[in-house]
Structure formats: C-alpha cells, structure tokens
C-alpha cells in the first residue's frame, strides 16, 4: 500500500469547472482538473509528445491533449485514444478537498527523492 504526504495546493475556487491547472510539487509538474463533483490529478506531460495536459479540453473524466488530440483517462492515467498499440500511462494522484482547499496526495518516496535533490543542490 502506498503511503502519501498530503500537500495543500490551492483554493477549490481557483480552478474553474471542467478546466485544468498545472502545479509544481516535489520536482513534478502535475495537472489538476476540476470535474465539478471532484478533482483529479495526473502528471502534466502527455505520453505521446509531452504536451501540457492541463491546457487540454476536459471531456467527461478524460482530457484531450492540446498538441495531437491524444485522450487520457484522468482516473487511471491510461491512454484512451489512440487505443491501438499504446501501453503508456501516466501517474495519477489522490485528491481531496478540505475546507475549500485542494489537497494532493504525493507518494512518500517521491517526496523523499525531491528533498534529497533539493539538499544536494544546496550543498
């Protein structure tokens, strides 16, 4: 079972309905999406050519990459289109809202690696 460190990201009002925003946390760029009844988060780089998914069009529980129209499922991080021969998927992150604040769950190992890099850069 994965352990998470929960990080406060932004006010839930700061991401309009059916839109995404990119956030930088623990050496990662993560796309955070407001689906109305919930928020979902995935890595912000499309597995095809690295397009910024936070700038894509939200369709149901998926996002369409703004560069080449690849469709990514936000719940699983899997590629939905094109379906043929693509086994790539993105990391997904748990999200919850606490008192109007979006809180993102980052795997502990990701937080530790980012902290080690930060300490190394400061030395």
Mind explaining what this structure looks like?
12% of the residues lie in helices and 41% in strands. It is mostly beta strands and 123 residues long. It has 1 helix and 11 strands; from the N terminus they run βββββββββββα.
Outline of the structure:
With 123 residues, the chain is mostly beta strands. The protein has a single domain, classed as Rieske [2Fe-2S] iron-sulphur domain (Rieske Iron-sulfur Protein), CATH 2.102.10.
Rg (C-alpha, Å): 15 Å
What is the count of β-strands?
A: 11
CATH fold group = Rieske Iron-sulfur Protein
CATH homologous superfamily grouping: Rieske [2Fe-2S] iron-sulphur domain
Gross CATH architecture: 3-layer Sandwich
Index terms:
four-stranded antiparallel beta sheet, globular, Rieske Iron-sulfur Protein, 123 residues, single chain, mainly beta
Task: Give me the secondary-structure topology.
Layout: E1 4-11, E2 20-25, E3 28-34, E4 39-43, E5 57-59, E6 62-64, E7 71-73, E8 79-81, E9 92-93, E10 95-98, E11 101-107, H1 108-122
Antiparallel strand pairs: 1-11, 2-3, 3-4, 4-9, 5-6, 6-7, 7-8, 10-11
């Amino acid at each position: 079972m994965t352990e998470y460190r929960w990080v406060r990201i932004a006010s839930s009002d700061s991401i309009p309905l059916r839109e995404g925003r990119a956030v930088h946390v623990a050496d990662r760029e993560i796309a955070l999406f407001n689906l109305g009844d919930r928020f979902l988060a995935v890595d912000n780089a499309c597995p095809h050519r690295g397009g910024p998914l936070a700038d894509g069009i939200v369709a149901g529980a998926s996002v369409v990459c703004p560069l080449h129209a690849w469709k990514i499922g936000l719940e699983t991080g899997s590629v939905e289109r094109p379906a043929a021969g693509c086994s790539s998927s993105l990391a997904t992150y748990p999200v919850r809202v606490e008192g109007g604040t979006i809180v993102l769950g980052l795997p502990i190992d990701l937080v530790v690696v980012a902290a080690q890099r930060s300490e190394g850069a400061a030395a």
